[in-house]
Design goal:
Strand content: 25-35%
Distance between the termini: 96 Å
Strand order of the largest sheet: 10-11-15-14
Radius of gyration: 40 Å
Shape: elongated
Helix content: 10-25%
């Protein structure tokens, strides 16, 4: 006797039509399918729902169930029909119903032989100035292009594809097996035409029937201003041609920015360090500096300390959105002379004396008001 109420499992009335049963199953299958919900409890529920659909969608099995017998209940002889892959449990028919293939046993037709090509990634190295202001580049890379001989058909000149004689153009073959439930029909892609419904008897000699050939191509690409290291630019429909003349995939250009000998890029700002003599920092100076825009005159104020930053506004890289530019930051490093000849040392000591910063050689002078004693007093007070 039937122990499970398949109508209740699917949530339909006992007089539900086949369409109502199919809609209820599809709704539940989309919620419970293992690819969507891998929980073991949910998988068992999915199997139960699938069994209910298998019974109620089949006229003979449904009549048997309405008479009080469960077609999937273990028989007295120990044979069971429940579960995936068991005898009399057409897994292909369940997938047809789940993915919209129609009634169990119904065909899905030949597969589309034309497929989209692969997308490819191309690395392109650029200098800092090229990433800052943009550039047009010729990029060469290997790819698949349409076969010029057969124009993607894959057949030799003057020939055409013919209908597969194994599946008669359907793209799939059916097999009928017997079980204690009766005859069960299953379908699978035709092994002769790979599910396409047609075959090539005389393939193109240049592409071996694929409809495309591999070769190196050169594309002229426009790199926008403001890109940086790691930026990816998508060129839609510029990738590989698909099999049998299918649409192209995409190209993804990956920007690699070469290191610059002077500037370090941080976002859209440029940073660098210049070293100036102590005398130039003390007295002030003017010097020329090479930026990405050309040579500029830089004024160093008298008394500049090490670590001071000179900012040149709008001398960095362009913003990617085109709204302006970053800045150029020049950090000053004051160089203190390490080796002095006698004359230089005497002059420096005289300078320190004039500024009240002199001290006895080799040690600090107690109570002296010069720079060195002030440093000692400052550290000693801590």
């Amino acid at each position: 006797m039937a122990a499970r109420d398949y109508y209740e499992i699917l949530g339909v009335r006992r007089d539900a039509t086949k369409d109502e049963i199919k809609k209820a199953y599809r709704r539940l299958a989309r919620e419970l399918h293992p690819d969507v919900n891998p929980d073991p409890t949910t998988q068992e529920r999915f199997k139960e729902v699938t069994q209910a659909y298998e019974v109620l969608s089949d006229e003979n099995k449904r009549r048997m169930f309405d008479m009080g017998h469960d077609p999937f209940a273990p028989s007295g002889g120990g044979g069971g029909a429940g579960g995936f892959g068991a005898a009399g449990f057409p897994f292909d028919d369940i997938m047809n119903a789940f993915f919209g293939g129609g009634q169990p046993g119904g065909g899905r037709g030949p597969r589309d032989r034309v497929r989209r090509g692969r997308s490819i990634k191309v690395r392109i190295e650029l200098d800092l100035a090229e990433t800052a202001f943009g550039v047009t580049k010729d990029v060469t890379f290997p790819t698949a292009v349409l076969c010029a001989t057969c124009q993607g058909e894959g057949t030799a000149k003057g020939t055409h594809r013919r209908t597969c004689d194994m599946c008669q153009g359907r793209g799939e073959v059916s097999q009928v097996t017997r079980s204690f439930l009766g005859q069960v029909m299953t379908t699978r892609p035709c092994p002769q035409c790979a599910g396409q419904g047609s075959v090539i008897t005389d393939p193109c000699a240049d592409c071996a029937g694929e409809g495309r050939v591999r070769e190196k191509v050169t594309r002229k690409v426009q790199i926008p201003a403001g890109v940086e290291d790691g930026t990816q630019i998508q060129l839609a429909g510029e990738g590989e041609v698909g099999p049998n003349g299918g649409p192209r995939g995409d190209i993804f250009l990956e920007i690699v920015q070469r290191p610059h000998p002077i500037f370090e890029r941080r976002g859209d700002d440029l940073h660098c360090t210049i070293t100036v003599p102590m005398t130039a920092a003390a007295l002030g100076a003017s010097f020329t500096f090479e930026t990405l825009d050309g040579t500029e005159e830089i004024d160093l104020r008298p008394g500049t300390n090490s670590g001071h930053v000179i900012t040149l506004g709008g001398r960095g890289t362009r913003h990617l959105d085109g709204s302006g530019r970053g800045d150029l930051m020049i950090q000053v490093d004051v160089e203190t002379p390490g080796r002095l000849d006698e004359e230089q040392e005497n002059l420096l000591r005289k300078f320190a004396e004039l500024r009240g910063e002199d001290h006895p050689p080799g040690k600090f002078s107690p109570g002296h008001g010069g720079l060195f004693s002030r440093l000692r007093d400052a550290f000693g007070a801590r």
